[in-house]
Amino acid sequence: MKAKAKRAQRARAVPTPKRRRLESREGAVITSLAIPRPLHQEARIASVRLNWTLAEIVREALEEWLERHGADVAKGAVR
């Protein structure tokens, strides 16, 4: 009887908000990449805290990198 009473007192689970993710895979390329474990762990923790998918974090990072280095890419600059 006590177990039933405890179950009745529990609050109902609240659905979590949808994670930030790509709206559609149409036109997307599925790829894989190797990154150092500490970087992956840090990104995974950030994705959970922000409620984003890890893929969305990688997309954002790539977009920012391309914006910063676009001129170098265009002229073929070597690092």
Provide a concise account of the structure shown:
The protein has three helices and no strands.
Give the topology:
Elements: H1 2-9, H2 37-50, H3 54-75
Description:
The structure is a single chain. This protein has 3 helices and no strands. 56% of the residues lie in helices and 0% in strands. The longest helix has 22 residues, at 54-75. It has helices spanning 2-9, 37-50, 54-75. The chain has a domain at 54-79. The model has no long low-confidence stretch (mean pLDDT 82). The chain is mostly helical and 79 residues long.
Q: What would the keywords be for this entry?
A:
single chain; 79 residues; mainly alpha; 0% strand
Write down the oligomeric state.
single chain
The portion of residues forming beta strands comes to under 5%
Tell me the number of strands.
0
Query: Terminal Cα separation, in Å?
Result: 71 Å
Biggest pleated sheet: none
Give the integer mean of the pLDDT values: 82
Task: State the share of residues found in helices, binned by percent.
Answer: 55-70%
Count the DSSP helices.
Answer: 3
C-alpha Rg (nearest Å): 21 Å
Tell me the overall shape.
elongated
Which spans of ≥5 residues are poorly predicted at pLDDT below 50? none
**SS-based class:** mainly alpha
* N-to-C SSE string, H for helix and E for strand: HHH
